[in-house]
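A further point concerns the way the authors explain their paired sequence and structure data. Since the whole study asks how a given chain folds, the encoding of that fold should be made plain. A single example would do more here than another paragraph of explanation. An entry of this sort, consisting of the sequence and the corresponding backbone structure tokens, reads as follows:

_____
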Amino acid sequence: MPCVLGVDLGAGSLKATLVDESGATLAEAAAPIATQNPKPGWSEQDPAQWWQALQAVVPQVLERAGLPAADIVAVGISAGAHIAVLEDADGQVIRPAIMWNDQRSTKEAAELHARAGELIIASGLNRANPTWTLCQLAWLQQHEPDAIARVKRLYIAKDWLRSRLTGDWTTDYSDALGALMSDVETRGWSREICDLIGWDMDTLPPVKAPEQIAGTVTAAAAGATGLAEGTAVVVGSNDTTVELYGAGAVTAGQGAIKLATAGVVFLACDRPEVHPPVSCYPHILPGLWYMASGINACATAHRWVRDTFFADLDPATAYAEMDRLASGIAPGSDGLIFHPYLMGERAPHWDPKLRGDFIGVTLGHTRAHFARACYEGIAFALNDVLRAAQALSGAEFGDMRLLGGGARSATWRQIIADVTGLTVKVPANGDASFGAALVAAVGGGLFADAEEAVARCARIVEENRPDAARHALYARLFDLYDEARKGLTGINHRLHDGL
């Protein structure tokens, strides 16, 4: 049975998904990944643990599928963007990988923007901030010059992990852009941007298409993982790029909402939409791009409500009970409004001093109301991002794929459809490891191109259409939600600053 293996290195775990040529998931397996926070605002991971996790999950997924490794036609790997791995001349990792959510390079990012913001945005399509590799490298040059002096090769996370399998040294344009060191005209590296920090371009990998074969599994890697020696491994792309692609959002106007730890809104576009701090990336399909932006607390806020209001329930069934109770409450939660700013907020307000709240509480409100208000508040926050993206780009939104664990909630899905006024569709498999597998299927020859892979494999299993009356109600409530956010901003700032 010819199949492909997709691997996604997430912030908290590494997941492998085995997919056949019809797009059916044959087996999945995952292993945890630890993050170190040596100082406030710092976030690092040990790449060696990524490799250990890959060695653990591949045998599991093969055993669960009951298939020999020889049936795998190709392997695709994705990972978070902006995560650089630095190696020396002996191929040794020099230091832990700085993660995308690390904030140590705030000063360097501000200096780069002040000095060359227009150049960076024109060439790299995004604004310098601590998320991007360019700013992290500038920090390392200032604070760890001995480590930087040893750098022979720079990898992005998915490329370093892939190199354990193949020995290759390659990246794709999406990850070059994610480093904020790319050239939109050549779709390669930008000498002008590299010169801003004096970065040696000889340390940067060649840039190839995501579906291109980067190499094959070596004998040593086969022995370590259980994969068959000689199996093709494609270049791949970053996690958000393959997620959007694998979910089937492949025409301009289609997008996705991801209900995960953070909430993310994606929109496919037929040209680069450059509106910093909203991110802009190339799509897997040639000629397409996408915008991405998000809120800080999505599943995080959902879990906080569970732990705070439903702590007496079995954690294994608490979410289902929240769903049941929330579905019995009328839209609007009888005037209870939730702002999910438990960690400040990113898009569209970019205000780390905002705080979460429930407003409008009365003696008539029960924990069922708080459950529904949680769903509605997160939907309002996501709608806030959608409205801002429309205002910035003038883009028209079509249907939206719903991704992440929250997509399993029928109540939440319908609330999002009613709040946004958009049809919400749930793909059969919408995670990054599935998207990485489809990219591998194209490179491995199972499909002629990326369009055919999606047409054959990306299926919709649930659909929620907005109700006109509920949408009108939520539009009025959203205005109150936004008015309350504005009115409480000054108070939130004073609370954050210690009065």
Notes: The CA atoms of residues 212 and 354 lie 44 Å apart. The first strand starts at residue 3 and ends at 9. The chain is about 40% helix and 20% strand.
